[in-house]
């Protein structure tokens, strides 16, 4: 839908909600309140809302634990021993990968390190890593500490991509040019799939192809892409990826992460990795013998036995995703975010107070719009918050708003537009 078809009236928002085939999913979530009223929740990029069904999924495992205790590991269809398999069909749709290429485990920053152990193998000739400048701090700390762990100097190794002067986001052609420029010194491109600050989606397919052309690998941090934009990791030939489940995947604060490892690495017991008993061949695990034999595929990167309660909450949300369908979600998402963009541009117009820095091109963004605040600073955000808008403020000067297609409505966006209109008068 082009911006021209949007309309400024309340009737338009009401009509869009009436015609929205996903509109009933909103009722499946708990909404927080601000000043006693249900919030306009645009913060799914930071912490997704709680599905009402989470409680029953958790209760079921609590009951299994109470009734079966240790027997729960092998009892019936809920057997904890195999619990990791339950999430695979949904993860497969969300990430566009084979089930054996995916496994839910650990937390994101932990997984970033584990993947680096296998996929960052610097040699004196080939040791450089490309990342976008201003990457999420955990990713920066991870990279620097990994580089130092190998006895190298981060300044010699890490190549940061910056936007052109006067621009806020990266051009694909510039990313690809830098990959070619680093050429046979490059061993890894390790970027976000969707940049948390600007909301830009990178062309993972093209970046991966360029990395492979110079003999390097490509891995992505999908924290902000997971459950937000359709992904085709296998077909894009991406080497590895990780994400978290508490943002768009609505699985609860700090909940479980996951990893993707392309099937070309499925049978590579020679790949260095930090091993644990849960990555060891499932059939022989309880023989408790010496000699690590990794499981086929991503499962071979597991260390510890599955966090059953975390996976239960995760599953509640994944089941909702499967029901809604990632393509349906994307279709609504483009409309919802397009509508937000239309209202912001129309209302803030030439005020000079704020500017959207997220790309206009749909294929280069997910649901989030990042607004650079030129005047008023955090007071603008505080004012919106007082009116019930839950977005987030990111230093130095960005407000991120993420209308999510699962639980946000066109009326949410319309109501935000009214609040924006009022607030701009204060900062004029
Ligand atoms: C949210 C986020 C993280 C958070 O890492 P945790 O290990 O889950 O605390 C890391 N990297 C990026 C890019 C993120 O967006």
Structure overview:
The protein folds into 2 domains: 3-50 and 326-427, Aspartate Aminotransferase, domain 1 (Alpha-Beta Complex); 78-322, Type I PLP-dependent aspartate aminotransferase-like (Major domain) (Aspartate Aminotransferase, domain 2, 3-Layer(aba) Sandwich), CATH 3.40.640.10. The protein is 35% helix and 14% strand. The protein contains 12 helices and 17 strands. The strands form 5 sheets. It has a 7-stranded mixed β-sheet, sandwiched between helices. A 4-stranded antiparallel β-sheet has the order 13-14-17-16, with helices on one face. The longest helix has 23 residues, at 326-348. The protein binds pyridoxal-5'-phosphate. GO terms for molecular function: kynureninase activity; pyridoxal phosphate binding. Its EC number is 3.7.1.3.
């Amino acid at each position: 839908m082009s911006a021209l078809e949007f309309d400024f009236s309340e009737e338009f928002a009401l009509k869009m909600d009436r015609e929205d085939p996903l509109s009933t999913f909103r009722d499946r979530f708990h909404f927080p309140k601000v000043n006693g009223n249900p919030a306009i929740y645009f913060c799914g990029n930071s912490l997704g809302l709680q599905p009402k069904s989470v409680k029953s999924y958790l209760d079921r495992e609590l009951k299994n634990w109470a009734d079966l205790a240790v027997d729960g590991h092998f009892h019936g269809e809920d057997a904890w021993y195999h619990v990791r398999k339950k999430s695979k069909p949904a993860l497969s749709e969300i990430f566009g990968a084979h089930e054996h290429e995916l496994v839910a485990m650990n937390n994101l920053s932990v997984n970033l390190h584990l993947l680096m152990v296998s996929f960052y193998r610097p040699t004196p000739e080939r040791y450089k890593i490309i990342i976008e400048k201003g990457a999420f701090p955990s990713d920066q700390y991870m990279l620097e500490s990994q580089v130092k762990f190998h006895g190298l100097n981060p300044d010699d190794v890490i190549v940061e991509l910056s936007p052109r002067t006067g621009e806020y986001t990266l051009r694909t052609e510039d990313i690809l040019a830098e990959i070619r420029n680093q050429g046979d010194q490059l061993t890894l491109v390790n970027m976000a799939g969707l940049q948390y600050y600007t909301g830009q989606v990178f062309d993972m397919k093209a970046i991966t192809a360029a990395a492979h052309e110079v003999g390097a690998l490509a891995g992505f941090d999908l924290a902000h892409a997971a459950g937000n934009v359709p992904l085709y990791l296998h077909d894009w030939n991406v080497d590895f990826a990780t994400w978290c489940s508490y943002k768009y995947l609505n699985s609860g604060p700090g909940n479980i992460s996951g990893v993707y490892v392309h099937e070309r690495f499925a049978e590579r017991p020679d790949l260095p990795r930090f091993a644990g008993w849960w990555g060891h061949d499932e059939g022989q695990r309880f023989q408790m013998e010496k000699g690590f034999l990794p499981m086929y595929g991503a499962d071979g990167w597991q260390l510890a036995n599955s966090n059953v309660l975390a996976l239960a909450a995760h599953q509640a949300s994944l089941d909702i995703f499967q029901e809604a369908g990632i393509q349906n979600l994307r279709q609504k998402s483009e409309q919802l975010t397009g509508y937000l963009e239309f209202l912001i541009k129309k209302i803030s117009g030439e005020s000079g107070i704020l500017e959207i820095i997220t790309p206009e091109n749909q294929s280069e963004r997910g649901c989030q719009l990042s607004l650079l605040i030129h005047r008023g600073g955090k007071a603008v955000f505080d004012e919106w918050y007082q009116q019930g808008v839950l977005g987030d403020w990111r230093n130095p000067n960005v407000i991120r708003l993420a209308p999510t297609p699962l639980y946000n409505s066109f009326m949410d966006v319309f109501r935000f537009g009214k609040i924006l209109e009022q607030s701009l008068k204060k900062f004029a």
